[in-house]
Each structure stands twice: as structure tokens, then as C-alpha cells.
Specification:
Bound molecules: pyridoxal-5'-phosphate
Number of domains: 2
Number of strands: 15
Length: 457
């Protein structure tokens, strides 16, 4: 029995406009054109209220990794809700789904990870980490170590602490962030640099900006460094190969905790279980969310390494932190079923060896288009940049809004990709077929040709 009434598209749009405030939305702008109402989905396709079929090249918001319409996930949630729809993990209680999932997560992660703390989202996971990091150093007798280093243009979520960790200037401006004790260094974005250094030289220099910041703040005051293996919302910024090993070296040298934000890169997106596996780093924390349930229910969490967990367990007494929905039973049941799908269908291997290399190859051919300055893709996480001219790189005036022009053209042509400034981002479900991959790239060519007509001087 559906709980939602049937209404016309116009009715939905009217009610939406009157009553609903949207995330990351300019409402004046939205109300000029009304919302697109998405009503159902199957496989890699979403359908709007007018019946338009759209290939979801973003997996929702980088989360529907196993694709839509997975009856197994629906059944797992329904069965768990029948058995035990809710109970908490406070007050010396636990339940089978949270315990089972925690032990499954240990199996798929690096050996330093034996324990998981559950949350409801990626933002909550990063807030949890800020508290754990600072508590850890207090317990280690170094209470002066509270500063966390992050990067410009990073995205770590929207709560106060997570938005402070993030490096998005417009977010900081709207609410007096960052909170004290969070500082930012440059992002490893070679294509956005002046190209006076080779990518590898640039990667080392970008990593050294962390070391410079440590020296500026004082090594005895720095608690941790946080970074996404590949910056997602900031435009799929793939670091040069030299960057990650140098970051690891610097964290090791100063004894600083390394946080690998795996909210997008976790659970297979790069063709390995985690971005830390892909880049061969050994983090102390990994926040996760999104893909753990393929987005079917909200769930997040934090992998906590033995280095930190042992101290928290032995010395913290009660760590006064937790969420009503930490380890929600139905969400955990869906996560368990989702991990089983990833394993049984070898979806991560498929990204590493099959559909990943295929989409990467055809995606790279877009670089011959006059509007495309740079393409990049690791696993099934990619982007290209729209430029006015290529050599030397000249960007469009932001007033042109070339990213938004393309995004709207994409939807018109039945493909949903996302614009981050002048970068177009692609992160399709892991089940993408060869012909669906072809469709993405063919539509992209059509869109680029039309966009060129519009923005041509
Ligand atoms: C989406 C995202 C978050 C925030 O997760 P929410 O579930 O939206 O709170 C944190 N970090 C990264 C890298 C993300 O992409």
C-alpha cells in the first residue's frame, strides 16, 4: 500500500514551491522553472513525472552504486523492520544488524581497522571524527594538539564541524565558519595550476604545503590531516601520483592522524574497496556513508584504527557522543545485503578490470572537442573541464555559466550529469553496461556541440 497520494506534476510542483526548502538551492531561481519531480527508477535510469527516462550518470548523489530496483535491498529492509524496526546501541545494548555489519566492515578494510562507529550520514561521521581526534590527543596527554588540517575546495559535509573541515568558501561565508582549530592548505589540482611544474613536481609541492602549515601552526598543535582520496564535489580532482605517498610520509614524520574521507570513494567507486587501498595509504580514520547502503537508506560511520580505538576503549571512560540512529537496524540490514551484492556480482572487480577501463577510454576521447580542456577518470569517477581555449588554458567568464548550460542540455537529452563550476562530473552506478556507457559519451558529444553553438563568441 503506497503511503503517497497520486497527484499531477503541476500539483507536486506547486506544493514543493510553497512548503519545501531544498538543500544547496537558490530558491528564487528554482521557482522560476519549478522542480523536476522524479517519481521512480530502475537499473541506471530515473523517470520524471512526465515519464521522461533519464540515465543517472551520478548514481543519485554518488550513492546508488548497486543501481535502482534491487529487490534484495527492499526485502532486507522490510524483513528487518518487521523483526525490529528500531532499537538503539546506547545503554549497554546492541542488535544483530549493527554487530553483523561492524564485523563485515572489518573484513573488507585494512588490517589496522577492527572497529566501527555508526552514524546517520557522512557529515555526522566527520563531526564524530573531530571529537574523537581531539579526545584521542587529550587522552595521550597532548591536549594542545587540536588543530586539523584540511584543503581548499574540499567537501566533508554540511554540519557545522563538517562544513568547517570542508574548504568551500561560500559555505564558510554564510555562517561564520570555520570553527576554531581547522585550517586549510592548497588542493592537489595540477590542471588548475599555471603548469610551470610537472604534475609530479606539483603533487610534491601541494603535499609540502601541509608540512609548511604544520611548521606554521607548530607540530605539537597539529592533531590530524583530512582529505578525500579524490575530491568529489569540488570537481573530481585527481591528485598527481606523487601526492599521496608524500602526504603519508608527512603524517608519519609528525605523528599526525590521517583521515581518508571515503564517503564517495568507499565501497568500490575506484575499483578497490577504499580510496586508501587504491592510493596505498594507511589512514587512522575512514568516514563513510553514501555507497554503504547504495543510498537505499541513510547510514554512515567511521572506521577507527586500533591506534585510536584502543586508547578510546582503555582510557576514555564514557565517550559522550552518539546519535539516536547510530547503527539503525534497517539501515544496517540494507548495508549487509548491499555488501553481499558487491561481493557476489564482483562489482568492484568489474570497475577495476572491465567497465571502468572501458568508460575511461571512451571518456578520454572527449578531449578532442574544442570545449574540453581536460578529462580524467579513476574507476567510475570522472570529470572533464569546459574551457574557452586550451593552450594556454583560458576559462569562461563565470557569468556565462557554461557548466549550467551543459547540465540543462544533458537532461534534455536524457542523461543526468552534474556541473561543479565548469567541470562536468560523471559517477554512474557500478552496473552500467557497455551500451549505457556509450550512451553517456554519445550524448556528451551532442551536448558539447550544442553548447559550443550557444557560447561561441
Ligand atoms: C557527501 C559527502 C559528505 C557528506 O555526507 P552526507 O551524508 O551528505 O552528510 C562527506 N564527505 C564527502 C567526501 C562527501 O562526498
Amino acid at each position: 500500500m503506497a503511503a503517497i497520494e497520486k497527484r499531477s506534476r503541476e500539483d507536486w510542483q506547486e506544493l514543493d514551491r510553497e512548503h519545501h526548502l531544498h538543500p544547496f538551492t537558490d530558491h528564487k531561481d528554482l521557482h522560476k522553472k519549478r522542480s523536476r519531480i522524479i517519481t521512480r527508477a530502475e537499473g541506471v535510469y530515473i523517470y520524471d513525472a512526465d515519464g521522461h527516462k533519464i540515465l543517472d550518470g551520478m548514481s543519485g548523489l554518488w550513492c546508488v552504486n548497486a543501481g535502482y530496483g534491487r529487490q534484495e535491498l527492499v526485502d532486507a529492509a522490510a524483513a528487518q523492520m518487521q523483526e525490529l524496526p528500531y532499537y538503539n546501541n546506547f545503554f549497554q545494548c546492541a542488535h544483530p544488524p549493527s554487530i553483523e555489519l561492524a564485523s563485515m566492515l572489518k573484513e573488507v578494510s585494512q588490517p589496522q581497522f577492527n572497529r566501527v562507529f555508526f552514524t546517520g550520514s557522512g557529515s555526522e561521521s566527520n563531526d564524530t571524527i573531530v571529537r574523537m581526534v581531539r579526545t584521542y590527543w587529550d587522552l595521550m596527554g597532548q591536549p594542545g594538539r587540536h588543530t586539523i588540517i584540511s584543503r581548499d575546495n574540499a567537501y566533508h559535509g554540511s554540519t557545522v564541524a563538517a562544513a568547517s573541515l570542508g574548504g568551500m568558501k561560500p559555505m564558510h561565508k554564510q555562517s561564520g565558519l570555520p570553527i576554531p582549530g581547522i585550517v586549510h592548505v592548497e588542493q592537489p589540482y595540477w590542471y588548475g595550476s599555471d603548469h610551470s611544474l610537472s604534475p609530479d613536481e606539483f603533487g610534491i609541492a601541494a603535499a609540502r604545503s601541509i608540512e609548511d602549515k604544520i611548521n606554521e601552526v607548530g607540530a605539537d598543535k597539529v592533531a590530524a590531516f583530512i582529505g578525500e582520496p579524490i575530491q568529489g564535489a569540488g570537481g573530481v580532482i585527481v591528485p598527481p601520483d606523487s601526492y599521496r605517498p608524500e602526504v603519508q610520509r608527512i603524517c608519519d614524520k609528525y605523528g599526525i592522524l590521517l583521515i581518508s574521507d571515503e564517503v564517495i570513494t568507499g565501497f568500490g567507486r575506484l575499483g578497490e574497496w577504499f580510496g586508501a587501498d587504491y592510493y596505498e595509504t594507511r589512514p587512522d580514520f575512514m568516514p563513510f556513508a553514501k555507497g554503504v547502503t547504495s543510498g537505499y537508506l541513510p547510514l554512515g560511520g567511521v572506521f577507527v584504527s586500533d591506534r585510536v580505538a584502543n586508547v578510546l576503549v582503555d582510557k576514555a571512560g564514557e565517550f559522550a557522543h552518539g546519535y539516536t540512529y547510530s547503527g539503525h537496524p534497517a539501515a544496517c540490514a540494507v548495508a549487509i545485503a548491499n555488501l553481499k551484492i558487491l561481493q557476489r556480482e564482483n562489482l568492484i572487480e568489474r570497475i577495476r578490470e572491465d567497465i571502468g577501463p572501458y568508460l575511461q577510454r571512451i571518456w578520454a576521447t572527449l578531449e578532442d572537442h574544442p570545449l574540453v580542456g581536460n578529462t580524467r577518470m579513476v574507476g567510475l569517477m570522472g570529470a572533464f573541464e569546459l574551457v574557452k581555449s586550451k593552450d594556454p588554458v583560458e576559462r569562461f567568464d563565470s557569468k556565462v555559466g557554461v557548466g549550467g548550460i551543459c547540465r540543462d542540455l544533458f537532461i534534455e537529452h536524457g542523461v543526468c550529469l552534474r556541473a561543479s563550476g565548469d567541470a562536468i562530473i560523471c559517477a554512474p552506478p557500478f552496473t552500467l553496461s557497455y551500451s549505457e556507457a556509450d550512451q553517456i559519451v554519445e550524448v556528451t558529444r551532442t551536448v558539447l556541440d550544442k553548447a559550443l553553438e550557444i557560447v561561441k563568441p
